[in-house]
Design goal:
16 helices, 445 residues, Cytochrome Bc1 Complex, Chain D, domain 2, two-stranded antiparallel sheet, mainly alpha
Length: 445
Amino acid sequence: MSDLRDPPDAVPRCGRWRAATAFAIALALAAVAAISAGPPGPVVTEPSIAVSPEQVRRIRAMGWPGAPPPDPTNRWADSDAAAALGQALFFDRGLSSNGAVSCATCHRPDRGFSDGLRVAVGVGTGPRRTMTVLDSAHQSWLGWDGRADSLWSQALQPIERDIELGSSRRSALARVSGNPLLRQRWQAAFGEPLQLSEGASADEVDAAFAMLGKAIAAYERRLVTGPSAFDRWVATWKQSGAPAALQPDEHMSPSALRGLVLFSGRAGCWQCHGGPMLSDGEFHALGAPGRPERGGGVSSDPGRYGGVDVLKSSPFTAARAHSDAPSGAKAKIVQSLVRVPDHFGAMRTPSLRHAGLGGPFFHEGQFDTLEDVVRFYSTLEGAQSLDHHQEQVLVRLDLSAGESSDLVAFLRSASGSAPATSWTSDPWSVPPPAPERPANADKSE
């Protein structure tokens, strides 16, 4: 008679029956659940937004600007050694008359190289808000009124302006000569020490002072931002053929995309804020209301009207002897500049690539937030009449609350990544290296 018992390592017959029954029940329940749920639904995607061919062209022109254009007026513009000297000068409080103010006082790395104040505060208090130096190497004119035609020319002006650093060119050069770090970096940048006697002529002082400004400019050329969320969206959109149907993705939310459509279309922002820098780089009088604590009403600031005079009278322009391209294209533009009445009150269009870094906004810090700025353009509440100087493209937009939020979302998407930390750090805050141990020192010390 055969042995009907299960082998020692086998599952008992009753156990196998229970397992099979449980498995069958599980399959049945799964089938019932699948039937109840029905077929899988389609993946939900956000609807695309159709734009006109003109908007396609405008958006294509708004992508990341990349590296700054060359500056032929500054032979050291792309020298790392000159930039290292410029970095030390930028953060050096010893350049100011009171030893307490540096370029970085108003252009703080932790505030997007602005200061978060309504108007700048240096040795004294200025009349205008501090513009960021981020990506300033892309600009043709520097300052709200365009009083400088190059980064190196602009860098020199605050040193001698009484409300900024309040010093002089001779004092600044003496600071370089008398400080070991600056002296060493000057030698590395220019291949020779700064040698300027007390009886040096004005031309000799100006020549050395121009070199100082060119070093700061070389540093500021390194302060460029990386691609923003908007730039990454544009790159993907272009790779897909730049279709007229715009689709949100992981870089651009539906709200930001709707804001872009408004920006490039009905709202008309592109007229002054188009191109890679989201700015035309030119000058416009908007008639924005002044701050109540400063009297409100029409500002008495001459803007570009006064800036042209400052520029033309400077010995440090592209067309003067201290330029490294005094006969170049930029020099010809500067020589042809004339001051006209329509310049009065006109300010340079700021780049919107840094709007998401925080306010306040406009040249007097009139608006604290981006929402305030959009509200002004929507309602023109408080706008001042500038007679024939008024900007003609400025019309009330009458935006809905949703449209205003969309525009703000787009503006925030346009802020790029910060420059490399090696260029945003203060070289004066780093402890000096410990002295090297003499080779013949007693090992027991």
